[in-house]
Each structure stands twice: as structure tokens, then as C-alpha cells.
Amino acid sequence: MVFRRPVLSAAVVAGFLFLGSYRQAARAAEPNPAAPAPPGGTLDKGLTQAASDRLKAEMKAALAELDRDSSRPEGVKRLIRDRMSRLRVFVYTSSASLEDVVTFYEKNVPDARFSFGRRNLLFDAAETAQAGGFTLKDGVAREWEGKPGVSARWHREDNALAIEVEDHLVDPRDGSITKKTVVMVSAVN
Fold first, then answer.
1. How far apart are alpha carbons 131 and 140 in whole angstroms?
2. Which of 63, 145, 154, 163 has the smallest CB count inside 10 Å?
């Protein structure tokens, strides 16, 4: 999972931008029953905290922008803050393959249909390192040059639930790359 880009999927952000909404504070929470843990998955508290911290930092600036936005009535701003205050992020790691995890969610979450894409793992690791203010470990570039990863994304139509699945972990704490299925669930409870 790469946290260099916004923690929320583009679709979820677009949904909140549609409402002009941003979150006051991000925090880890207990898993959402609307999106069960993936097969062979465990909630990774360290990655969940890293994702929540990143979201919190991004939302601080966004809230300041919302406060300066004179085009939205105060009632709408209150509604936006309320919805965003209920946003939670959960990061799981799973022993199951990306394909098995996606199949699981498509069977167990109503209307879930994922879009797949390729990602440049080394580029993601370099951006993660830049955002985190650290240098990649020796050998990372040599080992991962030209090796793509796969990601799958889905969001519910109301943008209150989004699931991202990636077949490699790009660790936001040190930029290391590991072949491991990672699932990030963003949910408004």
C-alpha cells in the first residue's frame, strides 16, 4: 500500500469534494461490518495508524480551505465536518492473493465490482520516501526496477465505503517493498 497519494481513493475524494467535505480528524477504529476483514487477513495496527496519520495531515489543510470557502453556507460546512468526522481507515494484510481478496469482496459486499490497474513499485517507493523524508534502503532500486504491481479499487456509489487492494506493500514507514496483499478500507460510519 502506498501512502504517497491521498489515502482516500480518488473516487471517495471526488465524492467528498462534491459535497465540499473534509475531515476534522482521522483516527483508527474498529473494523466496519460493511467491509469484513479479507480472507487470511489481520488488521495491521501500525499501517492503519500510518494511514490515519497521513489522512489527518492532509485533512488539516483541507479543513482550512473549507473554512475559507465563502461559497458554502455554514450549515453545509457543518454537515461536511460531521460526515468527515465519521471517516475511518483500516489497513489489513492478507495471506490470500489479490485475486482471492477481490473475489471475496465482490461476493460479500453488495454491488462491489473492482477496477484493476498496474503500478510502478519503484516509483511508488521513491515517492513514499520523498513524502516521508527518508532515503530508500540500498538495493531497493536494483531489486524492484521495472517490476510492476497490481492494484484493484472499488467505491460504493455514495462514497461512504471504498476498498483498495494491492499485491505489494510499499511500507510508508521505510519505503521497503514486500510481496504481500494489502487491503485499505475507507468507511464513513
1. 17
2. 145
- Asked if residue 79 has pLDDT above 70, the reply is yes
The pLDDT of residue 62 is 77
SS3 132: helix
Q: Measure the CA–CA gap between 95 and 149, rounded to whole angstroms.
A: 16
User: For 110-124, b where at least 16 C-beta lie within 10 A, e where not — what string?
Assistant: eebebeeeebebbeb
pLDDT tens column, 22-57:
332 333 345 666 689 999 999 999 999 998 888 888
Three-class SS state of 102: helix
What whole-number distance in Å separates Cα of residue 162 and Cα of residue 153?
8
What global pTM score does this model have? 0.78
So what's the pLDDT on residue 164? 96
Retrieve residue 25's grid coordinates. 480528524
Q: Which residues contact 131 (CB under 8 A, 6 or more apart)?
A: 3, 4
Look at residue 14 and give its three-state secondary structure.
helix
Helices (H) and strands (E) in the chain, counts: 6, 7
